[in-house]
Specification:
By secondary structure, the chain is an alpha/beta fold. The chain has 14 helices and twelve strands. Helices cover about 35% and strands about 15% of the residues. Helix 3 packs parallel to helix 9.
Length: about 375
């Protein structure tokens, strides 16, 4: 059976795996070698070297990731930020202009607003849910449009089809960070985007034990990005490749359970007297609900919310919880909770956070695969 005909469940297990197993090993071994002997096969692959992301662990992982996102090619990197910065630096240079959504992961927002301008790249922010405003910001030198399929940490959803249409009409490279949606909910390549990025640290791996990034797209785009990455040196080590390859095999099971938990928790919070607002697309009254139904096969596994009482009350509430750990990151099998101002969006100053709509008291919750009843009971006690 070809990869195209496989279901998602089957792809996650079998796509990219070698047909002939090494010494009969069910799992792909960790090839803990920085360099490889040159032989006749090298004429096709080129010099095999760990920094060049072309060891056996990389090759098999690339094939699996490309299958999951329905892309021609894939590339892994040393971190999610490495994937983002390498991709942007591949397609933007002195004199170019970037359009990006006004709500982004803090590291990304900080990089595009503070670092790219130092390289002579002009940056403008748009509301990716308001297509009528985009034409006002485009310039003759605009080269790239960048968004997140579900934004961090407000769970807003851009008008994804309109982004694709706008990019094609204006000859822009469209790049989307699909970390929160994962290929379980949304396949950007199938829907017309040029390049998909992931923090593989999160749902793709799902066990809070690696840091990594992933880039998927057409062969021509990935070749250009890989050429840049080879110089920058943000390669993924073989052990991390092994753990990511393993983690992907349970992605669907984990993500479905986490999404189920997120929906139950969001509904509980939405009806609680101490909660001002819940950001979760699965709540019918949420402003993103209709877009989630339009574009996705579900509502995702992340939520954020604000409590009455401000920062002090929010910190006390988090401190009383027994199960979620107050820690950065997300997407692991264990529940994690944090205030973005202290973690994911600490890169931004108060004015930048306010402009993006991120308050100091906002709480972001990444449910794990625990019992939803236990997690809700835990919150009940904390209140």
């Amino acid at each position: 059976m070809s990869v195209k005909n496989m279901s998602f469940e089957t792809k996650s297990i079998h796509a990219g795996e070698p047909r002939a197993r090494y010494a009969g090993s069910v799992n792909i071994p960790i090839f803990q070698s920085s360099t490889y002997e040159i032989d006749k096969d090298s004429q096709e692959i080129g010099m095999r070297y760990l920094r060049l992301n072309n060891t056996p662990n990389h090759i098999f992982l690339h094939r699996k990731l490309a299958a999951l996102e329905c892309s021609e090619a894939a590339l892994v990197t040393s971190s999610g930020m490495s994937a983002i910065t390498t991709t942007l630096n591949t397609f933007l240079e002195l004199g170019d202009h970037l359009l990006c959504h006004k709500v982004l992961y803090g590291g990304t927002a900080g990089y595009v607003s503070k670092e790219l301008p130092k390289s002579g790249v002009d940056v403008d922010f748009i509301d990716a849910s308001q297509p009528s405003d985009w034409a006002l910001k485009i310039k003759p030198n605009t080269k790239v449009i960048y968004i997140e399929s579900i934004t961090n940490p407000l769970m807003t959803i851009p008008e994804l089809d309109e982004i694709v249409r706008f990019a094609k009409e204006n000859n822009l490279i469209s790049i989307v960070d699909n970390t929160f949606a994962t290929p379980v909910l949304y396949n950007p390549i199938v829907n017309g985007f040029d390049i998909v990025l992931h923090s593989a640290t999160k749902y793709l791996n799902g066990h809070s034990d690696i840091v990594g990034g992933a880039i998927m797209g057409g062969e021509e785009h990935i070749y250009k990005i890989k050429s840049k990455l080879n110089y920058l040196g943000g390669s993924m080590d073989p052990n991390t490749c092994y753990l990511l390859q393993r983690g992907i095999k349970t992605l669907l099971l984990r993500f479905n359970k986490q999404s189920e938990n997120a929906k139950k928790i969001a509904e509980y919070l939405n009806n609680h007297e101490n909660v001002i607002k819940v950001n979760y697309p699965g709540i019918p009254s949420n402003s993103e609900h209709l877009r989630a139904k339009k574009y996705f096969g579900g509502y995702g596994a992340m939520l954020s919310f604000e409590l009455k009482g401000g920062v002090d009350y929010s910190d006390e509430f988090i401190g009383r919880l027994k199960y979620p750990l107050n820690a950065a990151s997300l997407g692991g099998v264990e529940s994690l909770i944090t205030r973005p101002v202290q973690t994911s969006h600490s890169f931004l100053n108060p004015e930048e956070r306010a402009k993006a709509g991120i308050s100091d008291s906002l709480i972001r919750y990444s449910p794990g695969i625990e019992s939803a009843a236990d997690l809700i009971d835990d919150m009940d006690h904390a209140f």
